[in-house]
Design a protein that fits this description.
Chain lengths: 82, 82
Amino acid sequence: MPHFRWVINIKNVEVIKAFGRRLRDLRISKGLSQEQLANEAEIPLSQVGRIERGEINPTLSTVYALCTALQTNMKDALDFKL
Amino acid sequence: MPHFRWVINIKNVEVIKAFGRRLRDLRISKGLSQEQLANEAEIPLSQVGRIERGEINPTLSTVYALCTALQTNMKDALDFKL
DNA sequence: AATAAATAACGCATATATGCGTCAATAAAA
DNA sequence: TTTTATTGACGCATATATGCGTTATTTATT
């Protein structure tokens, strides 16, 4: 059965969703498929999808790898408001 | 015994260490102790220490919580070069 | 020096990100 | 439509971040 045993921090959900949207925008603006981005960033394809959909909370190193693959700075990739 | 069974991505080590240094600088510039920052960000004190020392690879939501507690944007907190 | 405050360095349980699959659904191109 | 490319949505094992302790060490204060 599904659980609600743990407190959900709404802000945290929002930040990973906002980053997912930003990542997708950046990827598309660079004309890359998820697969190409995954290869560049050396991250599994399925993980890129989950991050773009805001399903997982990526680590700093993953964020960095994605930004590097997109030829952007974390500074710019994380420049969004909630 | 210690292991070397997995490939270590040097860049990833560098980014978490750089963030740790940046976090410490920001915290000190705001005149906060690790304990005060931990309370503000609602994360364990020991975790703040490990992050500042670059021992762990924080998630995006943790980075966000720390930046918010420091009254900074991720944009600025992650504005560093490797 | 003695005391207090701050940080380092551990341990441990649990939730979850990662890494690597597979197959379905959708979109794009032929 | 049919084929191909792309993305979504799963499953599962493993490494690790989180969360919450405790104790040691270092630093600051008196």
